Amino acid sequence: MCLLVLLTSSCLARRRVITRNGGAAKQPLLLADRNTLLDRVAKAYASVRDLSATVDMIPALGSAEKSKITEYKDVRGYILFRKPAAIRIIGLFPVVRNKAFDMVADATAFRLYIPVRNRFITGRNEIIEPSPNRIENLRPQHFLEALLVQPQAKNEQAILQNLTDEESANYVLQLVSRAPDGELRPSRSIWFERVGLTMVRQIEFDPVGNILSDTRYSDWRIWDGVPFPRQVEINRPRDEYAVVLTVVKMDINKGLTDQQFVLEQPAGSTLQVLGAKPPADRANGVVK
């Protein structure tokens, strides 16, 4: 009897409060299966035909692996997007608000104008060899892939993981695709927090499993009847840059014109085609 009393006594048990994200985990966790989450991704992508956003940007150049990261704060930006793959991003310098860069891309190629260097850069969206000049690694398509999470592709298979512990509660869709050699390789993972089942993260991988892009989403709000995150953090370790976008103003599905995605080389600027040798004579690349 004495032993039973001791074993059932509160002095032998300790109740712990589970905390997540710095506070007590009082909200119930939602349940979802693989198809439900895949459907949420598809519906979120389909809900946006075009958007126009004013954002505050914090670009950062460098990488954690090289232990050197430089941030540039108070950069104002404008993002235009229209399906299927037209995107334009304009960045302004802090304080003076002069144009820092202007870049446009479609599904295959991009055009980038850097006024302070009077340089106009063109090339294909994919980066074969990262440039030591990190601003040349910027691609509008990187922003597009981060801002709008693509639905499951035909060549992708989805595996659902439940990663719930004392610190976090997430569902993770692991998307894998079959390589030409027949092996299954990770293509990306999409994370959902389990309180509201909103997307909080997407990680994209290269063919050998290295991280190409790690994007985090937070502060989801309703813009013109469409849910969209107010803050998007994009990190591209291989390209050695990152950027935090905070939406100031957003218009969704209001319509955009073809002219808004036209970027011509300014007169007097130097043309640089990535992947090609720069001209020996600077004037060879100058538009008269």
Question: Your description of this structure?
Answer:
- The protein has 288 residues and is mainly beta.
- 10% of the residues lie in helices and 46% in strands.
- It has three helices and 17 strands.
- It has helices spanning 2-8, 34-46, 140-147, and strands at residues 19-20, 23-24, 50-63, 68-71, 75-82, 86-92, 99-105, 109-114, 119-124, 156-164, 169-178, 184-193, 199-205, 211-223, 226-236, 241-252, 270-273.
- It has a 15-stranded mixed sheet that branches. It has a two-stranded antiparallel ribbon with strand order 1-2.
- Strand 12 (184-193) and strand 13 (199-205) form a beta hairpin.
- It is globular.
Q: Rg to the nearest angstrom?
A: 23 Å
How many strands? 17
**Could you state the order of secondary-structure elements as H and E?**
HEEHEEEEEEEHEEEEEEEE
Low-confidence stretches: 3-7, 280-284
- Classify the oligomer: single chain
Short description:
The chain is mainly β and about 290 residues long.
What are the key terms here?
single chain; 288 residues; mainly beta
Q: Mind sketching the topology for me?
A:
Blueprint: H1 2-8, E1 19-20, E2 23-24, H2 34-46, E3 50-63, E4 68-71, E5 75-82, E6 86-92, E7 99-105, E8 109-114, E9 119-124, H3 140-147, E10 156-164, E11 169-178, E12 184-193, E13 199-205, E14 211-223, E15 226-236, E16 241-252, E17 270-273
Parallel strand pairs: 9-17
Antiparallel strand pairs: 1-2, 3-4, 3-5, 3-16, 5-6, 6-7, 7-8, 8-9, 10-11, 11-12, 12-13, 13-14, 14-15, 15-16
